[in-house]
């Protein structure tokens, strides 16, 4: 057993290129509130649910049947990358063990590690698809996901080691990584995986072990990409694979969204360890383009169903939005790395946008059903998800399916929820940065002694975040609190006395003092509902407004509207105030609904026409109506519905 | 050899349910102008081009290799429905022979008929995919397209017979139809093809032969559909195949657009022959919904890439529009049948919208390259189509490809262009209806004697349509001239004297008199450019205007704009006049361009953000700029470009 590192996904080794240092799950506990509830449900509901499906669909059997002593006579089942579904689920369980130990979950990992070890060939290679006789090892890397699967195995092994100090899974993963080094390292092969993931996994393995061949191989995989050498017509062009342009020259995210984002996460990792500025410059350039031109208000990224891909800038139609859950999770991972490097609040803002909106909407409130892609609008009722069955993926049905044939998203949700504590805060030589506001206890060493902070808040139900210092070094240090971009009117008190809420250059309210146990900081963020408009280049959203409240994007969903209120004919009167409506029990939890005043457009004057001359436009609106908005995250939990985030605006 | 019927695709037998009677190509000749040029190029360029690709891609060989005396040792190639590509191309050639005879094209059909006959099994079955050993006859009808292919064979055979009086192809087709009757008739099998087409083909075969078993089988295929019995997960649900709801109960077009529209064309045919009102009611209901809520300004139908499908009403984002060429061609076929039934101008209006816009844009001006799906907007330059190669289909490249692996569209263009004359006019007991305005000669018998009309016009370059009566019965009759829906200010003279241009209840300007040879009718339609807006429920087009001029939809394309005019930042000032700009040689032909006044939005104030609070919206516009619009039909003929039909509107 090794001495465990902090239980956190990213631990930069070359710390001179990161402004902020991460903390582990052992140092950051979410103690109550909706995220704590989700972490509990993630363990108690999602984990058994997921492993049930992984068994049912043969994902575990696919590895079990490869054991040397196996006499299994059943065939391999499912898509060619199902191994990664298991590895991601195991990573989720591992982080969860870093949060709270569990003998049962320890045994689950032991069992699964035994099965994977049984499938692993003596040289370390493991892939249930290739080993089942489908193609040759590394024979079809553009599509095979072999290195992608190994990447997820590495991440799972590292998570388990950091969370528990145990090596079973880690040793398997390292052996698999060693095959990759042996076969690909020093350009023994010049190709790479069609689906990025291995890059960040190898950098993290280097961080965990100090073995530089992993870092060099990660660099090699980044270097060989973008030369238009991927020989495939499956997806039409090289952009899908980020193979059209070398990453150092690329100006924006292109192609398959999850792949593009995973690549960038690996690129930032590589920059941190190698210091090559061109890598960071590319990642920042692409992140700017993505965030400014290719991200929905909910944090959804990747608008195109075709190829699960980014389109050109400002192509953000809500009615055909794809918005894969994994892409937003990837974006949280990328944002986290950029936050560590730059210390700038905009990356934590983006993480928050993703977490409270698309990520939350991806999973049913029962935590046992999921959207793979997340509609940004729903004009017509669709049938509910199949019961006790799973679709492939594609268009989201009227309710969230329990599972998918392509089951990448649910285990990705598992690992994000389980590791969430690690995203709350960081530290640096000056002190502590609080990025996300959740009821939590943070306890970790600073220079000069241990610091402990207890945060209590109902945020985002209200905007009051109370941070109590319960332990502190004697020397002065700075508590930095993120001021979200939307929170222009924030206020802060220390022990009841108002202090400046003006943020520093990196977007944080910085309070430097000699802290004493018992000191209390209260930040009040203006979470009153507001109207948001899209950049005018977004065709599909021109002339619409959305309701936001704090970090939460709201949506109109049909079950909350009065009879006869057809969401396809609703317009929102932007001259009328928005009104909050606190419910103690909305879908089993406290929530704030928002009321707006609208009109119901009377389309009769259009007489069935789709078009008219500009001077002959009818404008028929009825009497004012009440529109009820709920957090987008809660939609589609009451059966099939229609839903709209961006509502046509009218004045009066 | 049989006495040929009129060379026209639809000849109702139960004429009591059609207001209008069709004429044949022998009676309607387009004599000059752009459509005559296209018909010439269709014969001289598109036909050899298409047969070249059909040979090159093995489409003909796939049948050739099945000849009893074949010793071909090459495998079958291409998709499972390639036979239909050949049959549609043959139908195109057949209609072209009805227009102008050609020994060379006669021989081409003879040769191909011989090859098909060689492949046909003794009982009449013919399908190069199944006969190559892929599956069993009728074994996978949901996907196999076997009846779809036979349907196209039937249409080709009928076209050849009506155009030339020859039976070679017709006899093969009838034998194939007889297998279908033998195997499926009287519910011997209760299933049907996943891709509709056979329905209208069988009704037309009944019309051609009087054999009622064809009509009964068409009815059976319509009846068994919509019971959710298609057992496939390939496309997720039954709607894709129009199998979710019986057609008589369906309220709108759903699923795969070409399939949905072909079904409705067959349903109208069936109504005409059987008189079952529920069929017509459904077709009209679905047509209304499609035209009012699911049709782009260009006549594109089917907005979704995923499943090549209709979405819900008002889902018409231009930036992700699919708009398959075949779907608009199908809509022309459907509109024609509804026009014959109702005599209402709105169906001819829809045909005109499709013809001058999406249909014209589908084909390069060189007539040897095609879009399968037709972008409604292009934000970023895409690479040009591959040279001397063909994509599968999917997203349209920067220029039109020469061919496709899924080659349904180019031969569909061929048959539509070749048969276009038959869509110009009809007759009824009262006289003649002129639906489309092209330089043409029409000559056919009315009650009381032969009528001959010579139409000369530059329409739509200008709005003047001159119709000269050169032969006429002695008795009075009515000349009905379509007044397009946009032409509110039309005027008409007869022999120089103004008469009423008010349309009758079915949308036609009706002039009843005792016509004499030499009488001249001049219709003047107001083709000045105008601004058009979309129904406010169309999210993606809110706040935009489009330029139309007569029936022609205009687009801004990058090659025509001044340097620095980024079409993604252009706004059109709707308070300024539109100005015409006649060019004698624009891409090799006369054209009228339209100038508008715009502004170039300065997005710098957005500082890279995608979203802002409603009260903080920047509105930065520079000095007025000139915007140049060209007919949408001409876009993408000058290399990769950006393009926009619907332009954000501003006032001042």
Q: Work out the helix count of chain A.
A: 15
Work out the oligomeric state of the chains in this entry.
homodimer
Q: Which of globular, elongated, flat, extended, rod-shaped describes the shape of chain A?
A: globular
The largest interface is: A-B, 65 and 65 residues
Strands of chain A, count: 25
Distance between the termini of chain A: 69 Å
Average pLDDT reading of chain A: 95
Low-confidence stretches of chain A: none
Strands of the widest sheet of chain A, in order across it, are 2-8-9-10-15-12-13
Helix content range of chain A: 25-40%
Radius of gyration of chain A: 25 Å
Instruction: Give the structural class of chain A.
Output: alpha+beta
Strand content of chain A: 15-25%
The biggest sheet of chain A, with number of strands, parallel, antiparallel or mixed sense and barrel status, is: 7 strands, antiparallel
Describe the structure.
The structure is a homodimer of 652-residue chains. Chain A is an alpha+beta fold and 652 residues long. Among the domains of chain A are: 33-224, no CATH class; 428-524, Maltose phosphorylase, domain 3, CATH 2.60.420; 530-650, no CATH class. Chain A is built from 15 helices and 25 strands. In chain A, a hairpin with a 2-residue loop joins strand 12 and strand 13. Chain A is globular, with a radius of gyration of 25 Å. The model of chain A has no long low-confidence stretch (mean pLDDT 95). Chains A and B meet through helix 12, strand 16 and strand 22 of A and helix 12, strand 16 and strand 22 of B. Strand 16 (530-534) of chain A pairs antiparallel with strand 22 of chain B.
């Amino acid at each position: 057993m090794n001495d465990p590192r902090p239980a956190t996904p990213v631990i930069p080794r070359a710390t001179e290129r990161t402004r902020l240092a991460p903390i582990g799950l052992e140092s950051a506990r979410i103690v109550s509130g909706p995220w704590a509830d989700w972490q509990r449900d993630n363990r108690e509901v999602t984990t058994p649910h997921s492993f049930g499906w992984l068994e049912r669909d043969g994902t575990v059997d696919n590895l079990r049947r490869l054991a040397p002593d196996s006499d299994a006579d059943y065939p391999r089942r499912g898509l060619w990358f199902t191994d990664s579904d298991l590895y991601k689920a195991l990573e989720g369980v591992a982080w969860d063990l870093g949060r709270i130990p569990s003998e049962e979950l320890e045994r689950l990992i032991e069992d699964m590690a035994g099965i994977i070890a049984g499938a692993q060939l003596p040289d370390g290679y493991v892939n249930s698809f290739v080993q089942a006789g489908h193609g040759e090892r590394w024979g079809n890397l553009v599509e095979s996901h072999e290195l992608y699967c190994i990447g997820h195995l590495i991440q799972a092994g590292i998570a388990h080691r950091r969370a528990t100090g145990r090596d079973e899974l880690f040793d398997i993963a390292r052996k698999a990584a060693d095959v990759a080094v042996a076969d690909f390292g020093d350009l023994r092969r010049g190709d790479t995986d069609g689906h990025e993931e291995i890059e960040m996994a190898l950098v993290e393995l280097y961080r965990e072990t100090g073995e530089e061949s992993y870092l060099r191989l990660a660099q090699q995989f980044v270097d060989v990409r973008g030369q238009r050498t991927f020989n495939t017509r499956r997806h039409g062009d090289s952009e899908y694979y980020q193979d059209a342009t070398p990453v150092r020259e690329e100006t924006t995210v292109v192609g398959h969204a999850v792949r593009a984002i995973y690549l960038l996460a690996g690129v930032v990792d590589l920059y941190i360890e190698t210091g090559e500025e061109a890598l960071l410059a590319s990642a920042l350039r692409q992140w700017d383009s993505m965030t400014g031109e290719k991200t929905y208000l909910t944090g959804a990224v990747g608008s195109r169903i075709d190829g699960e891909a980014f389109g050109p800038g400002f192509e953000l139609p809500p009615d055909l939005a794809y918005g894969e859950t994994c892409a937003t999770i990837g974006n949280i991972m990328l944002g986290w790395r950029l936050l560590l490097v730059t210390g700038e609040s905009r990356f934590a803002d983006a993480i928050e946008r993703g977490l409270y909106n698309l990520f939350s909407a991806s999973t049913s409130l029962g935590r046992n059903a999921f959207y793979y892609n997340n509609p940004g609008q729903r004009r017509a009722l669709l049938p509910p998800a199949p019961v006790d069955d799973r679709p492939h993926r594609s268009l989201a049905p009227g309710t969230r399916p329990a599972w998918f044939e392509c089951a990448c998203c649910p285990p990705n949700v598992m690992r994000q929820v389980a590791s969430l504590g690690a995203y709350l805060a960081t530290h640096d030589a000056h002190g502590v940065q609080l990025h996300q506001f959740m009821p939590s206890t943070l306890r970790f060493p600073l220079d000069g002694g241990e610091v402990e902070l207890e945060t209590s808040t109902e945020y985002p139900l209200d905007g009051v975040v109370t941070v109590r210092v319960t332990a502190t070094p004697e020397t002065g240090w700075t508590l930095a609190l993120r001021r979200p971009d939307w929170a222009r009117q924030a206020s802060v008190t220390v022990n009841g006395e108002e202090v400046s809420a003006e943020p520093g250059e990196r977007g944080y309210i910085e309070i430097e003092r000699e802290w004493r146990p018992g000191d209390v900081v209260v930040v009040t963020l203006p979470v009153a509902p507001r109207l948001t408009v899209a950049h005018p280049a977004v065709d599909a959203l021109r002339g619409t407004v959305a309701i936001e409240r704090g970090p939460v994007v709201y949506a109109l969903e049909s079950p909350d509207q009065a009879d006869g209120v057809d969401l396809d004919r609703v317009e929102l009167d932007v001259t009328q105030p928005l009104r909050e409506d606190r419910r103690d029990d909305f879908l089993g939890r406290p929530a704030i609904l928002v009321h707006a005043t609208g009109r119901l457009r009377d389309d009769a004057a259009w007489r069935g026409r789709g078009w008219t001359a500009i001077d002959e436009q009818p404008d028929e609106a009825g009497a004012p109506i009440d529109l009820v908005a709920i957090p987008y995250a809660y939609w589609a939990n009451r059966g099939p519905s229609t839903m709209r985030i961006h509502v046509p605006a009218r004045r009066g």
